[in-house]
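Honest question from a wet-lab person: if I give you the sequences of every part of a complex, can you actually get the arrangement of the whole thing, not just the pieces? Trying it with mine:
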Amino acid sequence: MKQVLLSGIALIFLIAAAWAPQWLLFLLALALAKGLVVLGLLLLMRTGLVSFGQGLYFGLGAYAAALLAHRGGLADAALMIVAGTACAAAVAAILGLLLARYREIFFAMLSLAFSMILYGLLVKSSALGSTDGFHVQVKQFAGIALAAGAERRVFFAVSVVATLAAGWLLHRYLASHWGRLSEAIRDNELRVEYLGASVYRVVYANYIIAAALAGLGGAFAALAVGHVDPETTYWTTSGEFVFIAILGGTGNVLAPFLSAAIFEALRTVASQYAPNVWQMALGVAMLAIIMFLPGGLWTLVRRKAA
Amino acid sequence: MSAILVTEGLQKSFGAVSAAADINLAFERDSVVSLIGANGAGKTTFLNMVTGYLRPDGGRVRFDGQELVGRSPREITALGLSRSFQIPQLFQSLSVRENLLVAEGIAHAERVEEATDALLEKFDLASYAARPAGLLPEGIRKLLDVAMALVSKPKLLLLDEPTSGVAADEKFGIMDLVMTAVRGQGVTVLFVEHDMDIVSRYAARVVAFYDGRVIADGTPAQVLEAEEVRRYVIGDAPHAA
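Yes, you can. This is the full assembly:
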């Protein structure tokens, strides 16, 4: 049943890739890109960690992908996606050595600090376009030249496939021993150590996985928007990811994508009809979620299924 | 018979309070030993030092020929020493079955699912398998805590007050289940206990603590009759002026 549901969702998205108007395609592409970042946050939250700095890896993924095309002369979307993901994972492998030692507010603030350091560097770097960033033009995927005007649709279709693969892999991971161990760490680190497992290793691994997913999302965002700027690493962007994670809840790997789509739609509508107070609409939505659905929107899906 | 656990000159202070003062003990393999003493006597501090949670101020702890001081709880568990806790340390949001699956997964059991089912049966936990650990009655929490400690097939099992907080009529049932589970497994058991009926029934040897010192060590009959133990632990003899 689940496979049928997932196949149906994938089919709808792939049809959207072919037929949907550009504005809808853009909205969905951003929702998928952000959903990937939040998928990583879901893993961290299941381990008991909240990162206010996933913008660091989202931005790194976006910039690494964009730089490959802009400066490296390798304007191939497939290579850019790999570069964005690998760059985020590599940086996380270094920073994770330190961050995996911290918990709660210290972890949250340290991750925020690192993302703001990158933001500061990008803003001061005129070679990278400073606050304006720079454009990304890509007309090739895996060596195949793309017809003019079809690039966005191809990138979106690729992001649908990549998102499905990432969601399925994370679902398998969460159902595995390491997934259960992550939840055990959230509940009781002391007992995990007394049972003979290294909490540090699990947290470190999960941190890198979350960063890789954020890098992947960043690369797709760069391809969808066709532009990168330091805003991707700013704390409000990281806050947005946490917002989406709380909106959807951590109950299922589909929750981040559901909530990311709702978030993007809510923001689009709210900013169109109330351009000066759209953040207030988001704030009210968050208040309602925390008060009435503390487990996030996925609670509704679960209740209906039960 | 050789000793599996030996402590020499073990010392620990918390400020001006001495929780362990020159503790010299040796525990034989396959024995069942009870540690008794009033609250604050130093029993749990002793367990915490042996299991690596606290580093002693001085002295040595040798387990199966290996020095334990300076090792982490994780390293000590890997050597074959496991423990349960006075307040059961469970994964509250996970079910009883998932708690055991986590423990089995860490212990690298070959057939994790089958091993978990066997453990649920052995500890009479099958009817609670799907219930979150945070919603269990205290007696079941204690059993699950001990069951998780046994998953790694330890050579030495330390139980910190396995029956505290449990209804009087359930205490013997819990201890019977635990002792049945370890019997014939070659596991040495050290348990901290306040209930002298439990101590008399299950321990072959009793070590009494008071003020960070060992005040008596012997069979249950010898120790429970000792004047210092009656005065400071059991409380049925008048205190010295």
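Two things worth pointing out. The CA atoms of residues 87 and 229 of chain B lie 25 Å apart. The radius of gyration of chain B is 18 Å.
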